[in-house]
Predict the 3D structure of the following.
Amino acid sequence: HGSSPVHVHLTSDMLAHTHARCGASDSEAAIVLLHGFLGDRRDVEPLRQKLGALADCISLDLPGHGDSAWMPTIDAGTSAVDAALATLEALCPPPARLLLVGYSMGGRVALQLAARLPPPRLAGLVILSGSPGLDDGALREARLSRDVALAARLRAMTPPHFDEWLRREWYRAALWGGRLQEHPSFERMLLRRTDGAQPRDRAASLERESVGRQPSCWPWLEAPPAPVLYVAGEEDEAYCKVATRLAEHSGVAEPVERRLVRVAVLPAAGHALLLEASAPVAEICHAFASQVLPPPLVPASPPPAEGVRIQARGPEGVDALSARLLPFRLPLTAPLPLARGHPLTERAGVLLLVEGMAADGRAVRGLGEVCPLPGFHSESLDEAAAQLRSVAHRLQGALLPFAVARLDGSMSAWLAAACDRPSKSASGPLLPSVRCALEMACLHLLAQAASTSIAQLVCCARRAPYQSHVRINGLLARGEASSLEAAADAARAAVDSARPSSRACASGPAVKHAAARMRTWKVKVGGGDPAADGRRIGKLLLGCTALGARLRLDANQVWSREQAATFCEAMQTEWEAGCAALCPEHQRGDGAGAVSAPAPRWPPPALDFCEEPLMARLHAQLPALHAQYGLRHAIDEGALPAAAEALERLAASCATSGSDGASARGGEAFRALQERLGDASCAGLILKPTLAGGLEVSARLADEASRLGKPTVLTSAFESGVAHAHVAMLASVLGGPSIAHGLSTYERLQGDTLSPAFAEAVEGDLVDVPRLQAALDATAQGLRFVNERR
């Protein structure tokens, strides 16, 4: 953990990507991973994890796919080669060398990139079932005609018909072999294909990246400037022929390690190599990368910290000079009903600004926020502000080390020492909102000192990937679902008339969400008649399916077992009654027949989960509820006891022998959380960092969820844009690609403490992390105090 933070200049017009640093401060090489047609960067995530120890790994969402398809700055018809090249030049500029790894369409893009790169930049190329192009002009024209015709069909499809086309036609083609749909991971792969997918975006990409438009790269492969590995599945006849042709011209008399073009054909696999042969592909790629890439740099050990001031210790910390508080008050756009207490009409809080001196003498600032949510936080704003004022005074003159960015207990250790606040002091432990504000300001201060972003700072410290964009979900509170129903009804009508669904034809408050192209919606349920709630959500599920969107529910622990059963039965009945009407027979654009309506599948893919559906004392009955009705749950409030226990144990260990990772685990509440997360009925973990007790404890709980194979969704507690920015940047490090986080709550506030406002960093349902960092930096630098001259 001794490597220095690294700054990468990120721009808003780059492709959405995941960037994982190997750990060296100055990387000599990077591995670039490119997915296939209809996929996204989630497809190559297992490969990234395997190769991540060898070099930096960058996985891209190509134009028209994944998060890039939802970015207004990236047109679906943009050249994938041009867009990828521009992104790589920004993320990994010369002289760093690149190993390009591409699957199917991504393999073709990688091959064309390799042909355009200066030879010193190319370390190697891996093509997984990709075409080098067609030599014959007539064959290229015929292929382009077929792709244009298929693109026309895709443009005429609504999301439900797209799903059925994938199942009944696309994945039954000969190149996939005969067993793909029997694979245990097929349904998960299909869910990625249809997650918010708009067929028209895929159509634009298909036309632009058609093999018929691709120049033949066969001449380049005859004498490549760097080693090439080509891999195909033995049941994929067309690409086996490519492998055979390459093998015949690769110098079979030479030892394998000396051949410039190497070929591997994998048994019992068709075209879906990343699914059917994931482990063999990862092993082959790892072996090849180990041969063509330089060994990763080993980061130097940090100098000792004892008795040395910041100026003499190089880039090892920041001297915290002072900390100040700025109160704020923001009205809501409308009264907001909550699960507890009176409707919310405004948010009041305090900004914490910490000023320090970097090693090079620069003055730097870090910004955090305290904004307790009435009815949810145990502390009031007055109590939090009073403690924050006391703690801020104690920070003056303290040395803040970069090590705290690991979020592994180092932050708690530093806070305990700097604030002189052991867990059993008379003044009590740090309040959850206060601890979170301090952590926010500290991380921002360190990022400023390192001239980098918070996301990159934490990414480097934790050896974790970060996401360039954070996906968010729309939110509809109790009593607001009628607006989503309007949008859903309009989309269902579009499906019924076999027209592409249009979000623009809805009216009312949902138009704002719909026009923003939200792929995931969260709807509050409970507090009323469970049967009526179930019927309403059943209709919404039909509408979300027509929209190509997904639905999350949040019951806030209000139902008994009987009430939850009533809700589930009504929801399923409503869904099944409307399912036949949702997908009538859809005439193909080429007159080749019809895609018949699907048999209802319960639970539908559009239903993600329900947060805390049962009362707290009934959580042991959640597996039975899932077994009977298929409703998966997510843990929200149920995580708070484990978070409190983890903080208490961390504070105790920090006050005695220092930070110990195991000390925050092993308690009764933590073991109970582990047991719940490990159950098949659990879909994941929902955390509000300001309520759970901070960024560090949220990272610890998210790590545990990840170890058990469950995602973590970070949400806000209706704070201002400063807190939203910090949670979004933490989500970019803790969350995987394209996980929707609960951060659309910024829409509920009139005004913002962040300038430019948080809303300015949101495009569609994506938060632009680099733009958010710039806003946080500008806000911190622009703040003035009473005793400062304007």
